[in-house]
Amino acid sequence: MPFTSRTEIPEKDRTDLGNISKMFPYIWAFKSRVVFALLFLIIAKLATVAVPILLKEIVDSLNSEKTLLILPLGLLIAYGSLRLTTAFFNELRDILFAKVRYHAVYKISVKVLDHLHKMSLRFHLEKQTGSIVRDLERGTQSLSSLINYMMFIILPTIIEVLLVGAILLATYDINFTLIIFSTIVIYVLFTLKVTNWRMNFRHDMNRLDSESSSIAVDSLLNYETVKYFNNEQYEIKRYSDVLFKWENAAMQSMTTMSLLNFGQAIIITIGVTFIMIFASSGVVDGSMTLGDLVLVNALMLQLFVPLNTLGIVYRQIIYALADMNMLLKLLDKDIEIVDKKDAQELVVKSGNIKFQNVSFSYNNNRSILKNISLDIPAGKKIAIVGPSGAGKSTIGRLLFRFYNSNEGSILIDDQNIIDCSQYSLHKNIAVVPQDTVLFNESIFFNIQYADNTSTKEDVIKAATLANIHHFIDSLPEKYDTIVGERGLKLSGGEKQRIAIARAVLKKPKIILFDEATSSLDSKSESKILNSMDTISKNITSLVIAHRLSTIKDAYNIYVLDNGKIIESGNHDYLLSTKGLYSQMWSLQKEPSE
Ligand SMILES: Nc1ncnc2c1ncn2[C@@H]1O[C@H](COP(=O)(O)OP(=O)(O)OP(=O)(O)O)[C@@H](O)[C@H]1O
Ligand SMILES: [Mg+2]
């Protein structure tokens, strides 16, 4: 299910009115445009309603015996101009309002993406990218259509209904007004009731739609895995099962729509018939002229044209509200890692790191790090080793504050990272992650990503340090080579070296290598290790490694097992204690000696 997570705080319940009011600031950003658009809307509607009145005058003047042969030219010209006025002011309103509408869509899309980037890693690991993208698209689209419907259909119709009501009430028998209004009330109630019932089908459709695209995206992202296990049919089946349910929901939605449409037609027909009966009998008994009959008829027909679409529009609005609800829920999701109000800028002078009794669990039910204390002196190389799953990468994630620790504190140069802004923290730490993912852009773009003010020379320098420049230079397109989605066109080792180059370019005070050379052969690795020593000369480097030969020279080595530090010291000391480290060391040495 999209957006559901056990750990993120549940969304607040929202109402449609609440949703709409949330949108209001986006629209109100262009006050004068909105006000003028409304004004033009009213002018256009006044002209629209005046058309049947003029028609009545024309009919009556043609029908009167005295002026039988005189063409009411003035009236006819006025009739034409009124129609033009309607069209003119409608267009003017559209032009004015387009900016409001599109700007709102633009603003909210940007805001949502910004929000998504502020959400925690936890949220992003649990979300389905495919569904989020769909929800984002549908949500912003819904904003545009909502504004559209409100401004171009609902409001004008309400104005028209009121105007027509006023004219009828002022000129004719109260019965006309009563019939028109009760028809409208019945019509609206019927539409609301049936539409609310139909909403379930639409919700099912939306949910299944998101689900299917998330399956499709996921299966495409895992293209290679799908092939490795011959699971094309399995993936297609998962996809088609969901789509089959979607088809059923869509069919139910369509069938019930016809039901609704027909019901609406019945209500309108009954209303119009009654009006015509009253008007005709008025003409017969002489209380109304032929012109009056034409006027009432024209007003009714004119009124029910938008009212007829009101049914469709109401449905669309409800759906748009549902889509928008998704989007707003997303915006309402609490951000897990927030800067304190009075967050300080982290100032890293020397780069000393302390973990003080840090405990952490991703989910409350399984503790991952248990009472970890590390003291990492500035400018030194410190290693963390230990079995897979021990929690090594987790230590890095806490240092970068992807998660807050449950207990204990992490200090950098005696400043608790909880009290510092995330921006300043992130600025000072470079990470070469265990699994490097690259943007589907050029190699240059990917390295320069660390600092987009850096020059080509800086990039080449960083690439040279990471021992990758030579390789890049040998490519036909050199630095302009596009790396493929997630960097898949490069080998594992090449990607790792690009990640190292990119980290170098960041010129951090603290650098974290998480298995940064695991995909390299020994020769390239030792070359990089040399460069790494140069790179990290005056910076604190935290190296997570499986291959112990790479960290043998570290100032201090922490051995992590099952979330606990069980040994620490330098290589020689750890060998002498004959603990886990020395066991791992002898296991790794065996094949080569
Ligand atoms: N987002 C997460 N949610 C829940 N559990 C997680 C999450 N990330 C990691 N874990 C669990 O936390 C434990 C420690 O993971 P971590 O990635 O720190 O291990 P590691 O020591 O780096 O292992 P490796 O050497 O294999 O990279 C693992 O058992 C893992 O399953
Ligand atoms: Mg790891």
Can you give a write-up of this model?
- With 593 residues, the protein is an alpha/beta fold.
- It folds into two domains: 16-332, Up-down Bundle (ABC transporter transmembrane region fold); 353-592, 3-Layer(aba) Sandwich (Rossmann fold).
- It is built from 18 helices and ten strands.
- The protein has helices spanning 16-28, 31-63, 73-118, 121-126, 129-171, 174-221, 223-228, 232-284, 290-332, 392-399, 422-428, 443-448, 456-465, 469-474, 492-505, 522-535, 571-577, 580-589; strands spanning 353-360, 369-376, 381-385, 407-412, 415-416, 429-432, 510-514, 540-544, 556-561, 564-569.
- The strands form two sheets. Strands 6-7-8-3-9-10 form a six-stranded mixed beta sheet, with helices on both faces. The chain has a four-stranded antiparallel beta sheet with strand order 2-1-4-5, covered by helices on one side.
- Helix 3 packs antiparallel against helix 5 (129-171), helix 8 packs antiparallel against helix 9 and helix 13 crosses helix 15.
- The longest helix is centred in the middle third of the chain and has 53 residues, at 232-284.
- The protein is elongated and about 120 Å long.
- 33% of the residues are buried.
- It binds adenosine-5'-triphosphate and magnesium ion.
- Residues 392-393, 434, 514 line the site of magnesium ion.
